[in-house]
């Protein structure tokens, strides 16, 4: 479809990303519509999210509970929100109460947070919530996520002990300098093979959320089903001025 003459930069950037996603999917022998693009809108204003929504995009991601609970009520209810940041137990209720259209939590990294989510979904009478188990594939201490060796146990816990959660797959954040990204992605793929075999789920029913602005094409070529793209769509993150230099 032709781009409207006055289309904003973010909408134009989204089109370019979607085109690159389709091409990478074709190279991996999959149809492009099988790859979900999560437009990561952290630090971005509602007006900019609306611009991307207005060209037809519906899947958005946020990293901080206070941001998503502020933005979601100001935006259309048919958005599918993904929470992709580190989730603290004391923020679970706020997240679930204020974002009824929360589609997925991609960052379940221990049994405690899984149990909190499971109980709160039940208490609120929400439909079961899709979750991904976050795996720390790079071994960096600054990253959240379960060690690859503990991935199976956590996936099993979600699947067998959390009736209000739907175990939907695995997520990882590759190395920021991209030096070992292929190895990180391969580690996640190996975790999926182990989890699917043990739990008796077909691999195509177990998502791989991997790939961000700088490496999403490579991630898709390596089997990603869900890419999380922020700056390439929305521009660099906008932090308050006072945070500069900290």
From TrEMBL:
It comes from the Eukaryota. Residues 24-237 form the Alanine racemase N-terminal domain. It holds the Pfam family Ala_racemase_N. Transmembrane segments: none annotated. Gene3D superfamilies: Alanine racemase. InterPro entries: Ala_racemase_N (IPR001608), PLP-binding_barrel (IPR029066), PyrdxlP_homeostasis (IPR011078). Its cofactor is pyridoxal 5'-phosphate. The keyword ATP-binding does not apply. GO terms for molecular function: pyridoxal phosphate binding. The modification N6-(pyridoxal phosphate)lysine is found at residue 42. PROSITE patterns: UPF0001 (PS01211). CDD domains: PLPDE_III_YBL036c_euk. Keywords: Pyridoxal phosphate. Pyridoxal 5'-phosphate (PLP)-binding protein, which may be involved in intracellular homeostatic regulation of pyridoxal 5'-phosphate (PLP), the active form of vitamin B6. Belongs to the pyridoxal phosphate-binding protein YggS/PROSC family. This is Pyridoxal phosphate homeostasis protein. The lineage of its organism: Eukaryota, Viridiplantae, Streptophyta, Embryophyta, Tracheophyta.
């Amino acid at each position: 479809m032709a781009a409207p003459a006055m289309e904003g930069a973010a909408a134009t950037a989204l089109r370019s990303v979607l085109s690159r996603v389709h091409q990478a999917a074709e190279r991996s022998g999959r149809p492009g519509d099988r790859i979900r693009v999560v437009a990561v809108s952290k630090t971005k204003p509602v007006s900019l999210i609306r611009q991307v929504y207005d060209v037809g995009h519906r899947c958005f991601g946020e990293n901080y509970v206070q941001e998503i609970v502020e933005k979601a009520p100001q935006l259309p209810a048919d958005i599918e929100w993904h929470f992709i940041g580190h989730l603290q137990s004391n923020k679970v209720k706020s997240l679930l109460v204020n974002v009824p259209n929360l589609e997925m939590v991609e960052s379940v990294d221990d049994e405690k947070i899984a149990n909190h989510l499971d109980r709160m979904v039940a208490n609120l009478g929400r439909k079961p919530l899709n979750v991904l188990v976050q795996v720390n594939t790079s071994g960096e201490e600054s990253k959240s996520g379960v060690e690859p060796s503990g991935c199976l146990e956590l996936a099993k816990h979600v699947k067998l002990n959390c009736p209000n959660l739907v175990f939907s797959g695995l997520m990882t954040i590759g190395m920021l300098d991209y030096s070992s990204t292929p190895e990180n992605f391969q580690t996640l793929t190996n975790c999926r093979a182990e989890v699917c075999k043990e739990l008796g789920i077909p691999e195509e029913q177990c998502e791989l959320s991997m790939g961000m602005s700088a490496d999403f094409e490579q991630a898709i070529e390596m089997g990603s089903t869900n890419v999380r793209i922020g700056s390439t769509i929305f521009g660099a993150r906008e932090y308050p001025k006072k945070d500069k230099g900290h």
